[in-house]
Design goal:
The complex is a heterodimer of chains A (333) and B (739).
Chain A: E1 5-8, H1 12-20, E2 25-28, H2 34-39, E3 47-50, E4 59-62, E5 66-70, H3 75-80, H4 82-87, H5 89-96, H6 101-106, H7 109-113, H8 165-172, E6 174-180, E7 183-188, H9 189-192, E8 211-217, E9 225-231, E10 242-251, E11 254-263, E12 270-271, H10 273-279, H11 286-296, H12 309-332
Parallel strand pairs in A: 1-3, 2-3
Antiparallel strand pairs in A: 4-5, 5-8, 6-7, 6-8, 9-10, 10-11, 11-12
Chain B: H1 19-24, E1 39-45, E2 51-57, H2 59-62, E3 67-72, E4 103-104, E5 110-116, H3 119-128, E6 130-135, E7 151-152, E8 158-160, H4 163-169, E9 172-180, E10 192-198, E11 201-206, H5 211-221, E12 229-232, H6 248-260, E13 264-267, H7 270-276, E14 283-291, E15 297-308, E16 331-339, H8 353-371, H9 375-381, H10 399-410, E17 422-424, E18 427-439, E19 445-452, E20 457-461, H11 470-482, E21 489-493, H12 509-532, E22 548-550, E23 553-556, E24 559-562, H13 563-569, E25 574-581, H14 586-589, E26 593-605, E27 610-621, H15 628-648, E28 679-684, H16 708-720, E29 726-727, H17 731-738
Parallel strand pairs in B: 1-13, 9-29, 11-12, 15-16, 20-21, 27-28
Antiparallel strand pairs in B: 1-5, 2-4, 2-6, 3-5, 7-16, 8-16, 9-14, 10-11, 10-13, 14-15, 17-18, 18-26, 19-20, 19-25, 22-23, 23-24, 26-27
Helix pairs in contact in B: 8-16, 11-12, 15-16
The chains are: A alpha+beta (333), B alpha+beta (739).
């Protein structure tokens, strides 16, 4: 860990202005990511602006039934918020499947969107990593890549996006509101995280002097069933090997609307649009779920140690769709 | 021997006497200690695993705020390698001294130690040291990634009969190879050293399982008279074996303190702790069994290879338990070691034998299936009524009771042996079992006891409490033998200047320490009796042998006077007792071992490839449990560790360059609360082993881990039909085999 200057911001505007004026600045909220990576010497901010006291902690419906979530709402508060539990159960489930209670108590909504990969070569400054040091290469490609992505990778980076919460957000749909020196702008959640391509170090559609201030969810799918199935090595405090978040609305025994997203297998939160298309209007049964699962993994490109993720992700999808269907039926009853 | 047949304090569930200190933060662990003028050390670890340090630029770091000095191979005081002898008590974990030369043998090897005014300054400067290397491309990352055979160790062999011929003749044979990945101890408290020179004397606070061994090793390393070195370790946040013997960080820290003339404290960060302070080496074990159709074992061969480092020769003897495990006339074991580019491996809870018991007990399960026999029946059929290797009778062996009792409580008779035959919703239920065993040893030990004027008892021994409850059982012992309540016994451990006590290892501490403490109590009581039976004494004229110890005092007929009163009456501040104890002739008459049985239920959800351990029922035979509260805790904790070994834990070394890629508690996976089985049912059989010592106690720290891994693997086979012969059985393997 290298020394850095620390300042506490008392307004969003001043936080953004302070950041704008600096080289190598960083915001800190819960600190669950930044401090970890600073200690590992992976992130080397010279100036850290503490935003944790800023008024961005509200969860409330705005205009057309869209839930707006302040960027500093903790993971714990969000997962247990009555509106989230009632209208966005997938989001609640996904958050509670992530990290540990202690981390969720500290971690913020905005911070979760900015979460960085757990790739061990990214976290080891002695290793080659295009994400940490553009152009240095990718040690994971020929190294230990059991945890790495089978979807969305490039020859430059195969690091998995680690978030559970973002998988639910990908399925639900959302807008990210950013504030910069020149005002605010909205980014569609599906475009917020970038594929690595040739620039794996550019992870999100956000500039160094922009701050996430809020997240606004798409209107809830209703009536619906939801299920988040996270498959992992151990039962808690563990990142996904494969996770599937599913929302289903039923029309009799047929699927009405379907949403599906994957975690643990892709370089960004992975919405499965083709699979959703396959599901719509079809019987809510195993054969349909399996077809959707096939489609979702059709483009998978496994490496030496992570081929198991392809069938595992299919299993997560089929189970999530089954459980979401059951949930929808129970909801109707 | 004074068999303790009807104790009132020994054998009682006794809360830890140091619990309050730990709970309130008053128990000072090494990393928390602070002395005046103290500096902080932070090591710079090599970033390659195999090659040469070609340059080391410390100039920028040296100029950073607070930096006082930087040690490296060109700036280090004269040091001497310890003779590294178990017999002389100066064994070390890694024979190579820190900063000996430019050769890099493993990832994390220290290339420098930064010493600075604050921890943060030391760490920041450590990151600013620039080391350059010439990496060599033939690094060996793991025993399990090579076909290399390793060096055969003749002295580790053991055999009887003619196992080769018996194998050829056998009606049913099995020949399989079992592997276990390298594991980390991941003990809660990181290694830490606080070294201070007072003139020619060296005072070291260390989180260690052996203050006496480290004192001796430091004396050799710094060429000091033994009495000029003191090692102190009052509280230890566990070790599981990786704190038995001194590591290079302790030497580097003491050398730094010598060089700068101020106290220096180094606390290893987790990454470096995992890289440099030992691990359970990976093992590859070939088991060959031969049997008659009725299940009678006729041949057992157990050939093991384990990893060592390129700087030392650590041997994790896997075959230790095998010759005594079953009544079989023809047995042979062998042991090889293979150097790999890791920090030197070291003992980890039930070292060697836990790996060996896995291989043997998994193979016995396979044999049972080949014979269409119940695996419990197969074990009982080959039951060793005496130790078949030594020919001696067991001091006490209740393995048959363990097997039957645990089977009963588990509901083994309800088992449908068909593969995948038992279902519950989405899950297939698998049952598996295995025997557990661990040697029972004891060492020579000394202790000191005082009966004090305030009515308290003081007991001291140069062993240490690594978190297992040694303070408490020493207090129980003094309380039992004096009648003074446990709360009025002050126990001092963890100082090398105290009467020499044992390592906290090998499950030997209880059986080693308590007899010495008991002898010291008796010596103190005898001293008091001598005083009080003098002509002017309170019990003048009474035969000292007729005086009884009762309720914290001495009694004769209806006269009872407390120790405090007696000391006051005779104007004596305190009476002292010294005690020593050692194993004796019984070692020639009996074989000593502990035994147990684990029964495991796993649940396998094939729809999502999820495996979990849902139930563990165990019976353990360790003689008498001195403190059943702490003893049960040892077995329950060992079961949790066994779940890690079975399905989770693996140190991941990059196959290209042997760098360790998961040196943190997130990516190296031990079981967490959510992995706990719904049921962990531990029974401690209570058959005191008075042939072993007067307390009837063998050790309990390690046995609980043996047998858990194979019981899980056997249950996984029952659930899935797939025999996994490498631990841990992780999701990727399950999907690839069954997906």
């Amino acid at each position: 860990m290298r020394t850095f200057a620390y300042a506490r911001a008392d307004s969003v505007e001043r936080a953004v202005d302070a950041q704008h004026a600096q080289q190598a600045g960083a915001f800190v909220a819960g600190g669950t990511l930044l401090l970890d990576l600073v200690k590992l010497d992976v992130m080397r901010p010279q100036q850290v602006t503490d935003i944790s006291a800023l008024p961005m902690k509200e969860v409330a419906f705005v205009d057309d039934d869209r839930l707006r979530i302040g960027a500093l709402v903790t993971n714990t508060d969000l997962a247990h918020h009555p509106d989230v539990r009632q209208h966005y159960p997938l989001l609640s489930q996904a958050i509670l499947n992530g990290a540990s209670t202690q981390i969720r108590n500290m971690a913020s909504t905005g911070g979760n969107l900015m979460q960085r990969t757990r790739c061990p070569y990214f976290r080891d400054v002695a290793a080659a990593c295009n994400k940490r040091e553009p152009g240095s290469g990718c040690d994971a490609m020929q190294g230990i890549n059991r945890m790495h992505a089978v979807l969305g990778g490039s020859e430059h980076c195969i690091a998995v996006h680690p978030s559970d919460m973002c998988v639910a957000l990908a399925a639900i749909g959302a807008t990210v509101t950013l504030q910069g020196p020149d005002g605010t702008r909205d980014v569609d959640f599906g475009n917020f995280h970038r594929l690595p391509g040739e620039t794996p170090h550019q992870e999100q559609d956000i500039t160094d002097d922009e701050l996430i201030v809020a997240l606004t969810l798409a209107p809830p799918l209703a009536p619906q069933g939801a299920a988040y199935v996270k498959l992992r090595d151990r039962a808690s405090y563990e990142f996904a090997l494969a996770a599937a978040g599913a929302m289903i609305s039923l029309d009799g025994d047929m699927i009405g609307e379907a949403r599906l997203a994957l975690g643990g297998v892709a370089t960004k939160p992975w919405r499965c649009a083709e699979a959703e298309e396959i599901l719509r209007g079809q019987p809510a049964e195993t054969a349909t779920f399996e077809r959707a699962a096939e489609a979702a993994l059709a483009d998978a490109q496994p490496l030496e140690h992570n081929a198991f993720k392809v069938p595992l992700a299919r299993q997560a999808i089929v189970r999530a769709l089954r459980d979401a269907t059951r949930d929808a039926k129970e909801g109707h009853a | 021997m004074n068999e303790m047949t009807d104790p009132t304090v020994i054998g009682q569930r006794t809360p830890r006497v140091d619990g309050e200190y730990k709970l309130t933060g008053r128990a000072g662990y090494t990393g928390e200690l602070h002395v005046e003028d103290m500096l902080y050390g932070y090591p710079v670890p090599a970033t390659i695993a195999h090659g040469v340090l070609t340059s080391l630029d410390v100039d920028a770091a040296r100029g950073m705020p607070g930096v006082v000095d930087i040690l490296h191979h060109r700036r280090v005081p004269k040091l001497y390698r310890s003779p590294n002898s178990m017999g002389h008590g100066d064994q070390v974990s890694e024979i190579r001294l820190p900063f000996e030369d430019e050769r890099i043998h493993y990832h994390g090897q220290y290339v420098a130690l930064v010493v600075a005014e604050t921890f943060d300054q030391a760490r920041a400067a450590a990151h600013a040291v620039v080391a350059r290397y010439r990496q060599e491309d033939d690094a060996r990352p793991s025993l399990l990634l090579t076909d290399a055979e390793g060096d055969l160790l003749e002295e580790e062999g053991d055999s009887r009969g003619d196992p080769d011929a018996a194998f050829e003749r056998a009606a049913v044979t099995l020949d399989e190879t079992y592997c276990i990945e390298a594991e980390s101890h991941l003990q809660m408290e990181m290694h830490a050293t606080l070294a201070e020179w007072r003139g020619k004397r060296l005072i070291v606070h260390e989180s260690t399982q052996g203050v006496v061994y480290q004192r001796n090793a430091l004396a050799r390393t710094f060429d000091l008279p033994q009495e000029d070195v003191e090692v102190i370790s009052h509280y230890i946040g566990s070790g599981f074996g990786n704190k038995l013997f001194m590591w290079p960080h302790a030497i580097a820290t003491a050398a730094a303190a010598q060089l700068v003339g101020r106290p220096v404290k180094t606390v290893l960060p987790r990454q470096q702790d995992m890289l440099t302070a030992g691990n359970r080496p990976a093992s590859r074990q070939r088991i060959r069994l031969g049997a008659e159709r009725d299940g009678t074992l006729t041949s057992i061969r157990h050939d093991s290879t384990t990893e060592t480092s390129t700087v030392d020769r650590y041997v994790d003897s896997c075959g230790g338990a095998t010759p005594s495990a079953y009544a079989c006339d023809n047995v042979a074991i062998s042991q090889r070691i293979l150097p790999v580019n890791h920090g030197t491996p070291c003992p980890m809870r039930a070292p060697g034998e836990v790996s060996g018991v896995y291989a043997l007990e998994a193979a016995i399960d396979e044999l049972a299936i080949a014979l269409a026999m119940d695996p419990v029946e197969l074990r009982l059929h080959n039951y060793a009524q005496h130790d078949p290797q030594s020919g001696l009778p067991w001091s006490s062996k209740q393995l048959d009771k363990c097997l039957r009792s645990a089977a009963d409580r588990f509901g083994w008779s309800q088992r449908d042996p068909g593969i995948g035959a038992m279902r519950d919703g989405d899950e297939i239920i698998g049952y598996g079992m295995a025997s557990a065993t661990w040697s029972a040893g004891r060492q020579p030990c000394e202790a000191r006891v005082e009966l004090r004027a305030d009515g308290s008892v003081f007991a001291a021994c140069g062993t240490q409490d690594i978190g297992t409850g040694t303070y408490t059982i020493v207090a129980q012992t003094a309380a039992e033998l004096t009648g003074v309540p446990v709360e009025r016994v002050d126990v001092k451990l963890g100082e090398s200047s105290l009467p020499a006590g044992p390592l906290s290892g090998g499950s030997m501490t209880t059986a080693t320490t308590l007899p010495a403490v008991a002898a010291a109590v008796r010596d103190a009581v005898d001293a008091l009796k001598e005083i009080v039976t003098k002509p002017e004494g309170a019990f003048a004229g009474v035969d000292p042998d007729a005086l009884q110890v009762r309720d914290g005092g001495l009694a004769s007929e209806d006269k009872h006077i407390s120790f405090a009163e007696l000391l006051a009456m005779h104007d004596v501040a305190s009476v002292n007792g010294k005690g020593q104890a050692a194993p004796g002739g019984e070692q020639e008459e009996y074989s000593f071992r502990s035994f147990g049985a684990h029964f495991v239920e796993v649940r396998w959800d094939p729809g999502i490839s999820r495996l979990r351990v849902s139930r563990v029922v165990s019976s353990i035979d360790v003689g008498r449990a001195i403190n059943p509260l702490a003893a049960r805790n040892q077995v329950e904790g060992a079961i949790v560790m066994g779940i890690g070994m079975g399905i989770l834990e693996k140190l991941e070394y990059d196959p290209r360059d042997a760098r360790l890629m998961n040196s943190n508690a997130s990516d190296y996976r031990v079981a967490v609360h959510a992995d706990m089985p719904e049921v962990v049912d531990v029974e401690l059989l209570d058959y005191p082993d008075f042939r072993f010592n007067e307390f009837g106690a063998r050790g309990i720290g390690e046995i609980g881990l043996t047998g858990v891994g194979p019981a899980i693997a056997n249950a996984v086979h029952h659930a899935t039909g797939k025999r996994f012969r490498t631990l841990p059985i992780t999701v990727d393997k399950l999907v690839e085999a069954l997906g």
